[in-house]
Each structure stands twice: as structure tokens, then as C-alpha cells.
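User: New here, please read:
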Amino acid sequence: MVKFTFSAENANQQYVHITASFSSKTDVTLIQLPSWRPGRYELGNFAKNVRNFKVFDDKNQLIPSSKVTKDQWSVDTRHTENIRVEYNYYAAELNAGSTFLDDTQLYVNPVNCCVFTKETFNQEVEISLTIPYSWEVASSMKKEGTVWKVENTEELLDTPFIASAGLQHCTYEVGGTLFYVWFNGEVKPDWDRLLKDFEAFTISQIEKFSEFPVEEYHFLNQIVPYKAYHGVEHQKSTVIYLGPSYAVFEEYYSELLGVSSHELYHTWNVKAIRPIDMYPYDFTQENYSELGYICEGVTTYQGDLFLLKSGVFNLDQYFKELTNQLQRHFDNPGRFHYSVAESSFDTWLDGYVPGAPGRKVSIYTEGCLLAFVTDVMIRRETGDKYGLDEVMKRLYFDFALQNKGVSGEDYQKMVETVAGTSFQSFFDDYFYGTRPFESIIVESLEYLGIDLEHSPSPAYSEGKLGYKAQKTENGFTIKAMFPGSPAEIAGLMLEDEIVAVNNYHCDGELNKWLSYFDDDVKTVTVRRAGRMLSFVLPEVNRFFYNKYSLQLLKDPNSHQQKALRHWMK
């Protein structure tokens, strides 16, 4: 058995003291800290937080160890059958995938901070906590007396926990599965409203798959007093990081619902239905995959759609979410240069930062829109008998429950099997190519009796001049530029700080000054790397950035009405 102890002593230093005990049957034992965490497809470099790494033998004597890679240690174990590893882990970052310690909580994502050995990976793991007596523990770990246990190291790495005196929780049950909803931090839950909505979207998702993969599930909500939004999936739980506190059950309530439905859907899609490239996970290096459009794209689409199907969202609320994805799609010229499959592979490079302008797309946005189009195309081919739900259900039963990973070919073949027709060119052009698919988005919306409307951005700088700017202390910094726009033609660059229009200081009102000089030649003064430069913006007879919206057709035909009803069921 592997044993771990986590200590919350000296919380003001924010170092978690960790002890790990393993058996050792070889002359050399390699001790590994994970290089990344599932759900975040980039290297985590967690070893940068490790201090005072030491290894002891079964006589409590210090034994030699040396660093082999950035997150692996080699230990001489010729003269011992058991080793104890001790180290301190710096836990000062709080988000949905981190480890954090202060005077109010010990929050651990073991995948950040738990070392393992290959030889003991499949052994049962016992966890002990040194925490204040008044603290409660929220987790899917099973408590046995004064310790907690998980089946093996893979489950340990996938099992976050929160220990705190400030935890609140409630439960609900669907189909024999018990669901816990935990809140840590300053928040005043509206339990009646929350339970009604959570139960509704949970029932809807389980009905489509016919069963839930686990017997118990925990929503672990970390609520903070500042703006925050993040969620991470696990097999038996999710961690959601949300704020500010006062908005969680007010204007941010739809965000809480959205991320919760999204993460619940991950229990099937990713935690069960998993790309073959990550089956099983290799925690020692990058796990490259082109299937982010399934992992995150399908989940983004279905997570929001199930809020509509379950009646938690009305059409206007759902349209707002889908419109956000459409807006991101149209605003990103990267769609002309890099496919969603290529962008998925490259998440390990720059998948979670803007990166080089116009280079790539989002697996969440493009994947979501392609999932929507795929869903509607299947419905059209089958007379609304089947949709993407059927594809995912069959992948769950035919692959996940058979302990098989899913390839891109498997996904395409399942779509074709359910639809009864070839999707070869569709996948070649839009998943693995960069062919524009705006026309099929419009066709798919029209099939459901939905109209995609657009109008020029009301911001003068965006609609007429083709750049997006962010207000700064002394002006407005350019963050995006539309290809071929007056801003680009004039010679403006990203990160230029616009301080004046026609020699008048913007003073926080850039678009008002631009509108004021609408019929005049416009010269902008910018600050660029310590220089002050001026540029004349050319006049063109077209618009650039648009704002998009979705509306039901005023007079849909009977086929559209029927299709919409089936899509919303």
C-alpha cells in the first residue's frame, strides 16, 4: 500500500508538507512528479514548487537521490525494501486545478503535488491529513476511520479535496447516484433554486446516456470575492472556481450553471470516452492529440444545450451562449490559417494564451460550432430520429465501457453510422482543414428555424476602422486588428497605445472622438516602444468587426418547428 500524509501546519508559509511511503524492490527507484494535469493540455512544471526533497530508507536513514529530469528523481534503493519521501510543496495559487494552503483551507489537487513510482502505481493508496480539528473534508475519497483511501495512484491523481471549516453542502439523488454540491468561501447559496436546476440538467444528461459512470459525484466549488471563472473535470468530481461571491447567485448564476453542466458532461466525455492518444494517461510527458474538438468542443456544445433541453435555460439564455461562440469564431482570423485538429495538437505550445495573432483557433469555440453542425446534419439525415447524443452514447458503450480509447477515425465512423451517410469531405474540410464553414452554420440554424443576424459593431474603432482596443491609464492599447482594415493599412501595430485623435487627447473617450471626426481625415497619435508616432487612417466603404445575434424566424415552416422541438428534447 502507498501512503500519503498532507500537513496544513505553518499555513502562513503556504508550504504543504507531504510525506509519501512506497515499497521498493529494485536497485534504483525512479520517483516521478506529474508533468501535467488532465484537463489542461500543457506542461504544468509542478516541480518548480518542490522544496527540501528527501528520501529515507526503512531504518529512517537518509539515502542518496538525484534529479534525472525536471520532475523525476533517481533513488538508490539497493539496501532497503521501503522508502519514505518527504518534501514541501509551495501552494500559493488558487484556481480550479491548483493546490492552495492558507489559514482557512488546505486544497489539494494531487496531480500537482503527489509523487509516484511505476512499480506501485496500481497499489491502493491511503491518505492522512494533519489539519485543524474543526475542518471538514470535501472529496470523493472514501473515509475509513481517520484516513481516506483510493483504489490506486491514477485515482489519487484524479481526486482533489478541500479541507476547511467554511464548507457548506447539500445533496440530491438521480438514478441511484448521490450528488454532493459543496461551497467553500464566502457565498450565500440559494439551495432550493440550485437543487432544482442541478437535478434538472443531471436528469437530462443521464437520460441521454442511459446511465451514469460513477456511484457518487461531488461538485467542489471554490468561491472567491473577486472575478473568477474556471472548471476542471475529474471522474468522480469537479472543481469549479467562481467569483465574485456576491454575484454567484445573481448575475453570475448562469455561469455557475454553465460550468457545472459542462463539467458533469465530462464525466462521460473525456473521463470515460477518451482519445486513444491519452488512453491511458502518461503523466511523464505531453500527450498529444488532435481530438480537442471532441474533448472540449462537444462538451462545450452539449453542456450548454442540456441546460436548454432540461428547461433550466430558455431559448434566449441559450442563444446568448451560442452567440458568444459565434462571435469568437467570426472575430478570430486564425480560422483561415490553422484547423481545429492542428490547434488541438498545439495546445501544448500555446493553447491557453492568445499566442501569435491569427495563428490558431480555440478547440472550445470551433469544436462547439462543429459539434452543433454535426448534430444538425445527423438530424437532417435521419429525419430527426438521431443526433449527436446518439453518437456519444454509442461511443460510451462501444469504447469507454470496453476499455478502449477513441480515435478521430472512430468518431467519424460513428457519426457516419448514426447518420447513414458519408461525412468524409465534411471532416476533411472543416475538422482537418481550414475551409470556411459559415455557410453550413447558417444552413444548420435555418434547419431549426433560427436566423443569424449581424450588424456593424457600435464601437467606431471596431466597426469602421477594424481594430479592438483596451483602455489603459493613458490611452487605448490595440489588442486585435482585422486583416485589410484601415488600421492595418495605415500601419498601426498590436500593442500600439492610441493617445490622441487629430491632436486631441482621447481622455478615455476614443470612440467619441473618432465619431466626432467621422467626416474628416483622422490622424491618430500612438505611443510605440517609447516613440510617439502619427498615422492617417484611410477611408473605406465597408465595415469590419460585426456583432452577431440569434433570433427565431418570425414565420417558421412546419418542418422547422418540428426540427426545433426535437433538437430541444
Observations:
- The radius of gyration is 26 Å.
- Residues 168-431 form a domain with the Neutral Protease; domain 2 fold (CATH 1.10.390.10).
- The mean pLDDT is 98.
